[in-house]
Amino acid sequence: MIKNKKESFFWTSYSDLMMSLFFVMLLLFVLVIVLLHNKIGEQALKLEEFEKIEEIKKSLNNIDSTYFAYNPDYKKHILKISVNFPTGKSNINDIDYSTLQELQKAGRAVKNQIDEITKTNPEIQYLLIIEGQASKDNYVQNYELSYERALALNRFWQNSGIDFGKNCEVLISGSGTGGSMRERIESKNQRFLIHIIPKTGVIESRSTTLAN
Question: N or C: which end of the chain has fewer CB within 10 A?
Fold first, then answer.
C-alpha cells in the first residue's frame, strides 16, 4: 500500500513538472513569435524608408537640366554656368550681373525641385549643404575663403527671396583645397558644391554640384 502511494505521488509530481515545463515552453514560443513579428516589422519599415529614399533620389535627378548637367563619375549634378571669383575674393558682388541672375535661377531650380517633392512626400526632410571650394594657389587662407564664398552664396539666395522651406536645413561649409571631388585644372576648383540629402529615419545622400 505504501509503495503504491509513493508511486502515485511520483507520477503526480512528474505530471505537474511536465505540465509546468509545457507552459514554460509555450510562453517562450509565444515570446519568440512576438519578437520575430517586431523584428519583421522593423525590417519592413527600414525597407519602406529605403524605397522612399530611392524614389526621392530619382526625383532629384529631374532638377532643371537648363542649369545642371549630370556627372556619372561622381554621380552628381554640375552647374552649367561658368562662375569665377577673383583670386582671394569672396564678395558675391564681384561676379558680373548676368552670372548672378543665372545663379539666382539655379537656386530657384533647387527650391522648386524640393517643393515639388515635398508636395507628395511632406514627411521627407532635407539637409542642403552649401560647400565652397578653392584652387591651390599662393593664397594662404583658402579654407576660410571657401567657407566665406559658400556663406556669400547662401546670403545671396536669401536676399533673392529663395526660401527652401521648413523641411530643409541649410548648412554652410568650406573644404578649401581638400575634398575628394576636384578637377585636374586647379582654376576649375573655385566652385560651390551643393549637397541635397533627403532623410526619413535614415540618411542617404544625393548631391548637386555648382561650378564656381
Answer: N
The reply to whether 68 falls in a domain is yes
Query: And the C-alpha cell for 125?
Result: 526632410
pLDDT at 207: 46
Q: Is the dihedral of CA 54, 58, 59, 63 positive or negative?
A: positive
- What angle, rounded to 10 degrees, do the helices at 2-60 and 97-120 form? 150
Phi/psi at 194 (nearest 5 deg)? -115, 115
* Dihedral, 62, 63, 69, 75 alpha carbons, nearest 10: -70
Contact status, residue 208 vs residue 181, Cβ threshold 8 Å: no
CATH number for the domain spanning 76: value is 3.30.1330.60
User: What's the rounded Cα separation, in Å, for the pair 17 and 109?
Assistant: 73
The number of CA neighbours under 13 Å toward the Cβ of 204 is: 15
Domain count, the chain: 1
In a domain, 141, yes or no: yes
The residue among 50 and 168 whose pLDDT is bigger is 168
Tens of pLDDT, residue by residue over 54-107, are 667 666 667 777 887 766 676 666 667 777 778 788 899 988 899 899 999 999
Alpha carbon of residue 123 to chain centroid: 14
Q: Which amino acid is at 176?
A: G
Domain membership of residue 155 as a residue range = 61-210
**pTM score of the predicted model:** 0.68
